[in-house]
Amino acid sequence: MKAEWAEPVRVLVVDDEASARRQVKAFLSDLAGIAVVGEARDGEEATASLTELKPHIVLLDIRMPKMDGLTVARIMRREFPDLFILFLTAYPEFEYAREAVRLGACDYVLKPVRKEELRNAVRDAARRFGERQLSDHRRWENEEMLRSLRPLLCQEYLNILISWPGAFAEREWEAQTRALGLRSLPRLVMAAQPVRSGTASTPAPGALLPQVPSLSCEGGELLRWEEGDMIVVPQPGRMIALVSPWPREPRWPEQWVKAAARWWQRRVGSELEVEAGDYCSCLAALPSSYRTAAMKLRGKAESRTGVPALGTKAELCERALRGDLVGVARLAVEIMADLPDDEAAVEARVLGGLLASAFAQVGVSHETVGKLQAEFDTLLREPWTEVRVGYRCYPRTVELLTDFVSELHRKFADSQSAGQRAVALARAFIEANYYRSLTLQEVAAYVFLSPYYFARLFKAQTGTTLGEYITEVRLLRARTLLLQTDLSVSTVSEKVGYRSCSYFSALFTKRFGTSPSVYRQTARGG
After folding, report:
1. What gap in Å lies between CA 361 and CA 417, rounded to an integer?
2. Residue 309 — pLDDT band, cuts 50, 70, 90?
């Protein structure tokens, strides 16, 4: 016997012969870790005493009056499936042994019982019982630990997905998603904050939300609604939700997004206002969905109707990949200029995630990017002048972001061939300038290559021509404008770089299977 379990293993002896019972008890009387807690003369008496005596091991004679041992074993196995049963019998026939094994007997000891044979059989049963107890206890401890850590795991899961979803491969995200209780991968980010009225005060920077019924969580909470699951996590001044569709992907994502926002709004009542980002067909788009929801809450929804605002994120990535630190700093100031210091740090963390994802997509290893981002996040939380809720003040935040970009760009330059860097820079340039008239000559000149060589290089590395790539970027931006603004179709066409509305409509219809106006009307439930 090992000493990992403190209490002795409890044994019940069942035999119709009193002398046999006395002999078995005598053989076991000095066996360490074993306690004979009772005896029974037949099967009825044995089964009746199980609840009171709570044995772990039953020594059971096969041949007894009223009820034979095999019948008793069936009853015990049905009502107490964790019992360890040792059969005692003077009949060594094979059929008895086979039936005993089928009933789950852990051993089979023949009469007349030999002392060491019995003691060895009981020791083995006790060892197996102890191992199972330890296994059950460790499983319980693991479950308790996971239960206590679940809020923090939910929080970290959300933080990584809205800042750097490229940190893990999709199959790894699927495993983490299942472990946290979500039944499918997240497709939407929503944000909520206290309702701001004429007399209501805005929460102090860094303050968590008031105790909202059903959402007073620390770390993270899993919610289920009729069309999916949500992980809700508090952040300074707001709450963020990751939403997963269930049981199937929505046919009309925009309607599902609205349904999710309505459900959460009903759940929290009038205390919070809820805004939703864009539906994401892939995990890489979740940071953008988060930024959209956060911008709506900051009252900047109207700025998204202009092309420069829509292209700010893309321009930031393009300048970062090019190593333009001055341009990165300018855009960071533009994004964070009107934010309190603590919110600027939160925004910087999200921007850092977007930049990390951009560099990971063009070939910088996830390990390298992850290490640099972890260092960046740590620096954001270190003390500094005018410190608020543990974050550095705003000007220092911009400085740290540009330092982070500098290191990312250096790793990018070291890890990529000249051709790979050229294509990556070209794609970033297109993302930031899609609304202009772009030509092969202009894009090729931007990366210092001849048009003929660049066209072949771009097709080889992306699988698509430059013209096809520009069209795809423009149509995706057009879809966003149609869904998020009330701009006319002709205005949307101009803002994504098409002077001819009819040509734009034909391209859009071919790409999405319906005209721009019908697409908007259907998506909005009209």
Report:
1. 15
2. very low
Q: Are residues 385 and 482 in the same domain?
A: no
- Whether 206 is in a domain gets the answer no
Whole-angstrom distance, CA of residue 335 vs CA of residue 325: 15
DSSP state of 304: G
Centroid of chain to Cα 359: 22
Are 335 and 274 members of one domain? no
Among the candidates 299, 321, 336, a domain finishes at 299
What's the longest Cα–Cα distance across the chain?
105
Q: Is the pLDDT of residue 213 over 50?
A: no
The residues near 85 (Cβ < 8 Å, ≥ 6 apart) are: 57, 58, 60, 73, 76, 77, 100, 103, 104, 105, 106
Angle at 521 between CA 516 and CA 525, to 5 degrees: 145
How far apart are alpha carbons 142 and 139 in whole angstroms? Answer: 5
The enclosing domain of 51 has a CATH number of 3.40.50.2300
Tell me the C-alpha distance between 40 and 391, whole Å.
72
CATH number for 459: 1.10.10.60
User: What is each CA distance from 313 to 143, 337, 474, in whole angstroms?
Assistant: 41, 15, 15
For 149-188, the pLDDT digits (tens) are: 567 677 778 877 876 777 677 888 888 888 888 899 999 9
Question: Domain range for residue 233?
Answer: 164-195+214-299
Radius of gyration of the chain (CA): 34
Helix (H, G, I), strand (E, B), or coil: what is residue 299?
coil
Tally helices (H) and strands (E) across the chain.
Answer: 21, 10
DSSP string, 436-463: S---HHHHHHHTT--HHHHHHHHHHHHS
Token pair recorded at residue 163: 């800042």
Work out whether strand 9-14 and strand 57-61 pair parallel, antiparallel, or are unpaired: parallel
Task: Tell me how far apart the alpha carbons of residues 401 and 355 are, in angstroms, rounded to a whole number.
Answer: 10
Asked if 370 contacts 364 with a C-beta cutoff of 8 angstroms, the reply is no
- What secondary structure letter does DSSP report for 500? -
pTM for the structure as a whole: 0.37
CB of 139 within 8 A of CB of 131? no
Domain stop point among 371, 400, 416: 416
Count the domains in the chain: 4
